[in-house]
Design brief:
The protein is of the alpha+beta class. 39% of the residues lie in helices and 18% in strands. The chain contains 15 helices and 17 strands. The chain has a 5-stranded mixed β-sheet with strand order 1-2-3-4-5, covered by helices on one side. A hairpin with a 4-residue loop joins strand 6 and strand 7. Helix 3 packs across helix 4. The longest helix has 54 residues. It is globular.
């Protein structure tokens, strides 16, 4: 669709909504203002309704009415009862293989109760609104974990509300809906659910078993009962939706907000990096410190990255924030192992009149080095941040980076201790946040055929990371084989039982027929 045609549809939708609904109904003024100013929001309703203005206007009315009734714009942790937050029946955690955030529903923890259904619905709306503000327009993968689920856990009114959330209230946010190990007794209920979803959403349903769920979610984000290795267990507080941690700093130690644990670097990669940047200078000796000692990045480390940025591609896109302009705007592009593109550049530009403190966090701290990861940027200047893969790790679409920034007072110092104290005291409302996801550039090298892959799998392992990956794959393959064997044994026993029953009936029939004839 041409931009001009798209613009006219958006304007027509706005005008139709004003004339049809806005004069007779009351909505949250914040939602009406956003509709006036946000073309992307209007476009999302049009796309979900196949560019039908009439259907899009009805959808906007339903959505705005829901937001007003549930006070969605004012939903926060303090507005919800603590027992809802502590149940762990609904939460965001992990990513699927396409890089979409996972929205978990632990069905066995939900109990149908008319007295608490409103709070549970608000809890779902709270998570969706929280995600929509942080990741606008990026889809979610919904996972219904139905292990140990019974009739008492099924609440059709609650299920219908969840469907309406993605069908009406948050259009285009549903990537797919994975239903794991659905009991056969629920088949009739899900036939009704399919009728609610409509044809567009039905094709996003995925009914999976333990052996099939890994087609969509990797083992690192699956709990053990799904065949995964994710040790995550829900607990509150805090809310577990981000999982961002401080990455490895350039010199090797793991960093946190107030403490870092230093360790000796013995890898050849780090030695080559130091040699290439410092020439004949001997690399600085790393100081061993205890885990509780504080070690911070110094400002001169920012200047030392100049030599490294020459070999890294400059990002082209820019996100214009209130404190910093961040480039790239959405994605860090890493190459596959064959391409050997293991470094990316993030450019932060201060657009304020004061110093801006910044921190970089990631969901995969063991994979990445970030330099600098905790520093400040002078007014009107820029800082180059080098993000490089550590050791034998590979980038993944599930990996995310969080850039946090806050404006400092003119009286504030910029030393390591000053920055540490600043982050402890700065209000959350004054912190600007921006997220970046990883994009892996696939190599053009053809994939080896199966037999050749099998032959090459016996090649010597290069490092402990490769060995660990191979062992993990071997364990998972062994588990799947064990499950198939158990299933075959069960079928064999069932067949034997059926044969025995058939023989018994046949013998009894042969015995009873002569008796009747006599």
């Amino acid at each position: 669709m041409a931009d001009q045609e798209k613009g006219s549809l958006i304007n027509e939708t706005r005008q139709r909504f004003k004339n049809t609904y806005l004069q007779d109904k009351e909505y949250d003024p914040r939602d009406v203002e956003r509709l006036e100013n946000d073309d992307t929001l209007v476009e999302s309703y049009l796309l979900w309704r196949h560019n039908s203005v009439d259907e899009a206007v009805k959808m906007i009315d339903e959505s705005f009415q829901f937001r007003k009734d549930f006070s969605v714009n004012d939903l926060c942790e303090s507005s919800l009862p603590s027992w809802v937050l502590e149940t762990g029946s609904v939460f965001l955690h992990g990513y699927d293989k396409e890089g979409n955030k996972l929205f978990w529903f632990k069905v066995k923890l939900h109990v149908k109760d008319s007295k608490t259904v409103l709070e549970r619905k608000k809890y779902v709306a709270f998570w969706l609104e929280r995600y929509a503000k942080r990741e606008p327009g990026k889809p979610l993968t919904v996972v219904f974990d139905m292990v140990e689920t019974g009739i008492s856990n099924i609440d059709m009114d609650f299920v219908r509300f969840i469907i309406n959330c993605f069908k009406v209230y948050y259009p285009k946010y549903l990537s797919k809906m994975i239903i794991f190990e659905m009991p056969w007794i629920m088949n009739a209920a899900w036939k009704l659910v399919k009728s609610w979803l409509g044809p567009d959403a039905v094709r996003l349903l995925r009914f999976v078993t333990r052996s099939e769920v890994q087609d969509y979610i990797s083992v690192e984000y699956l709990p053990p009962h799904m065949g995964g290795i994710d040790p995550f267990k829900y607990s509150y507080p805090p809310l577990p939706d981000d999982d961002f941690q401080s990455p490895i700093c350039e010199n090797g130690p793991y960093a946190s907000d107030s403490e870092m644990e230093a360790k000796e670097e013995t890898e050849s990669e780090s030695k080559e990096t130091i040699d290439s940047n410092h020439g004949d200078e001997s690399p600085p000796r790393q100081k061993k410190v205890s885990f509780t000692e504080e070690v911070f990045l110094k400002h001169d480390e920012v200047d030392k990255t100049d030599g490294k940025t020459k070999s890294v591609k400059k990002p082209l896109t820019v996100f214009k924030g209130s404190l910093l302009h961040i480039s790239p705007s959405e994605e860090l592009h890493f190459g596959s192992k064959e391409r050997e593109e293991r470094k990316c550049l993030i450019v932060l530009s201060n657009v304020t009149k004061n110093h801006v403190a910044f921190k970089v966090r990631t969901t995969a701290p063991e994979k990445y080095r970030v330099k600098p990861s905790n520093s400040s940027c002078e007014a009107g200047s820029s800082v180059d941040i080098i993000v490089s893969l550590h050791g034998g790790f590979e980038a993944s679409p599930q990996d995310r980076f969080l850039i946090m920034a806050a404006e400092m007072d003119q009286s504030s110092g910029t030393s390591s201790s000053d920055l540490s104290q600043f982050w402890k005291e700065v209000p959350r409302s004054k912190v600007m946040e921006h997220r970046l996801r990883c994009h892996v550039v696939v190599s053009n090298k053809p994939v080896l055929p199966f037999r050749e892959n099998v032959l090459n799998s016996s090649a010597p392992v290069k490092n402990s990371d490769d060995l660990n990956a191979k062992l993990t794959n071997l364990v998972m393959a062994n588990k799947r084989l064990g499950e198939q064997i158990d299933r075959c044994i069960w079928l064999q026993q069932l067949l034997i039982s059926l044969v025995c029953i058939s023989l018994t009936i046949a013998c009894y029939t042969l015995y009873i027929l002569p008796t009747n004839s006599q």
